[in-house]
Amino acid sequence: MSDLFICYCDKCAKKNEFPIVEEKVKDSCAFCRFTGPVNKEVKENLVDMSDFNVDSWSGGGFRVLQKTPFPVKQSHDKLYPHLPRRMISDKCLIFYDKNFLIIANPKTGQQIQIDFYNGESTE
Prior knowledge:
Layout: E1 5-8, H1 10-16, E2 25-28, E3 35-42, E4 56-59, E5 62-67, H2 76-79, E6 85-89, E7 92-96, E8 100-104, E9 111-116
Antiparallel strand pairs: 1-3, 2-3, 4-5, 5-9, 6-7, 7-8, 8-9
């Protein structure tokens, strides 16, 4: 999954106080969906990483790990565009595949991933 970078236009950069770079890439803004020259930044530079935990927990055929938070104003369809999603409540958004589940809180940007396996190591 390519959740390392985030793209945003200059207008959203000013609104959210994100850095504006000279060299733009052709993509679409993750916030307002503008398509054209946008800034591309490592997501960790834009979100609060103070409560981020790199440890994972494994047991019972699954592994749980915390994913990098996302900016709360980011469009949900830009988070994992290739995955089906379902909004359970205003605080619970689920992305899923046959081997994993991502549970995200759109209000805080926090998210966890649950990987499912049959006794085989996913490391």
